[in-house]
Structures are given as C-alpha cells and as structure tokens.
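Aim 2 progress. For Cardiolipin synthase B, the working sequence is reproduced below.
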Amino acid sequence: MRVVNYTYDNNLTLLQNGEDFFPALLDAIENAHSEIYLETYIFYPDEVGRRVIDALKKAAARGVQVHVIIDWLGTGRKLCQLLNREFQAAGIECHVFNRWFRRGFVRLHRKICVVDHLIAFVGGINILNDYRYDYNKKSLLTYPRQDFAVRVEGPLAMRIYQEAIRLWEQTGKRTLWERFDRYRAIIRTRERFRRAKTALAGFIVRDNFRNRRTIQRAYLRAMGQARKRIILATPYFAPGRRFRNALASAASRGVEVILLIGSGEFWVQDSVAQSFYPKLLKSGIKVFEYNKTQFHGKVAVIDDKWATVGSSNCDGLSLFLNHEANVVVRDVDFAKTLRKDIEAALSEAVEICPESFANRPWYKRFWYGTAFLIYRFIMRTITWGDYT
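Predicted structure tokens for this construct:
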C-alpha cells in the first residue's frame, strides 16, 4: 500500500516566513472568483490578521463563497466568538473546531487555504504577525519567527481542496443534497487546471479516522530509503520509539542525520527533547538547538530528492492526536531550495556536543528523564496508548 499518492505537473513555490507567505496568500484571495477554504490553528486580528480578514470580506462581498475553520483552543474562546460574529456579518461561513473539547483532546493544527480549486497553501504558518509570539500574543519577538509554507498550483490543489471540503462537512451540518452538489462541483472543475512546471508531489493528512499514522509512515519510509543525508527541522521533538529508531538506523548505515530543534519556547518540552539527546548523539546524529527566535518550521529534506513542508511537528501531539497536513515533494530543485533555507537556520543554531552534554549536572539530566516519563504517561493516556 502506497503511503503517498503523488501527482505530476504541479507548480510549487516554497514560502519562508510571513514575508513570503502573506503577500502570496492575499494575492490569491484578492483574485478569487468562486470559493475559498481557509483552516488555521491561530487566527489573531493584529495588523497582519486584519489584512487577511479584510481580503476575505471583500471576496465575500463580490460573491465568493468563503469558508473559515479556526481552532477553539489555538485561537482562544473569546476571540473565536468575536471572529465568528464578524465573519457571519460579512457573509463568511465560519466553523470553530472542537469547542470545549467535545471531541476529546484533538486539535485542528493544520494550516490550509484553497482558492478556486486551483491554488492551495499548506504549511505551518498561522494567521498572525511573524514578530508576535504565538502563545503570548502581547509579547513581540526580537527576530521574525522562522516558518515555512508551500504554494501549490496544479492537480495536487484538487486533492487539497477535497480534503478541505471533507473537514468542512465534518464540522458543519449540511443536507445530503448539498453534499452531493458540492462533490459534483469538484468533478466539474477537474479540467480547469493549467499545465505547470513538472513537480512530483503528494498531500498527506493525519486524523483519527482514516489516516491515523499516515504522516509518520511517510517519514519512516523516506528515512528508511535515505542513502546520504537526512535534515529534519521541528519546533518540538518527542516522537515515538519507531521514529527515533529510524533516525538511529539511518545514522548507523552511514547516513548523515541532522536534527534542528526549536529551543526556549516551553522549558518542559525542551527537557523532553533533551532526554533523547544521549542516545541520539551516541548513534552519531548531529543535534542543533535554535533559540535566536521562535522556530516554528516543520520541514525535512532527504538526499536532496525528498522533502516535506507542513504543520506536523515531530512530537506526540502532531503524530498521534491532532489534525495535521503536509505536502511531500519528490523534486530536486525544490528539495535543494528548502535544504539551503534549513542550512541558513543551522548556521544560527548551537550544536550539542556529546562531551558538554554529558558534563551537565546530574540533577538536570535526572529532570530530563523525569520530564519524558511524565510526557509519555500523558500522551499514552490521551492517545489511548497510540504513543509508543
């Protein structure tokens, strides 16, 4: 069974940080003709968020059907209420995902926008200013948050569109005829794609129904086929044992394995990641911590042939619980571009040396192990034992 279903003839543009992402997103929204689907974990109406809101309102005013899903926890209860009222007043349909944890602990962590069935955006960038700390929005960062997204034009955009509709239908109430009419519209628009630069790409999601382990399996297969180098960047590192063993196995057969991990955001999360360092370093894996600013990118490049950009962190929440979405690309030019961007972040990061880490005080190393045991217990509880 194939983990990723790839399509050809996609035009892919790598977008780094809001500086690249928001102009491209706003341009697509401002030129929309029929439909917009937007999903985000955090939607904050600062100067950047207001520009997106205004563009969505103008689209709705000219007859575009605009659909927005925001996460109740990520955006915040009161802000969800305010945004919902504002959107509805402007003729924008809005769903709030998993109010009051009615569907358990699962969150809508993916960030997707699809415009007119033809253009899609997938990545890790929320709707807020790059300089705004996302978990304490009153505070500003010294440097812009590091993050990535990809603009997709071509057949893969239809696959993303279908997934956006599926979640929209799950989170709302529609009659059987309305659902049938929606899927009939998908079929009618299949021939509208333009032939674009050839890029082999696939779209993978993680949910708790049909795709419980899809993203992890994609990573595991790619790492298992690696021959030269694996570069993996993530804000939080706490995957299950199979994921960690795959990295160690690659290093043992001579693959250069480089981990870039965000640091300084949550001290408990940092401690959990640091609990893995002794075995990772002993396996020959190079570990770097990035603490210049908030590192929010969830990306990887393998052998300059395989790359992924998306919303899925390499931790228990993203791999075993939350709704996530990644684009997987088998294109040398795209992979090399992404690799250079990750290497630029690596140049600003601090490499963890085995000797210096081993010389840390015993009580710090004891706390790292304790933090992992607490984390594992919580994750096994809320994922019903899936986190292993």
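Residues 11-201 form a domain with the Endonuclease; Chain A fold (CATH 3.30.870.10). This observation will guide construct design in the next reporting period.
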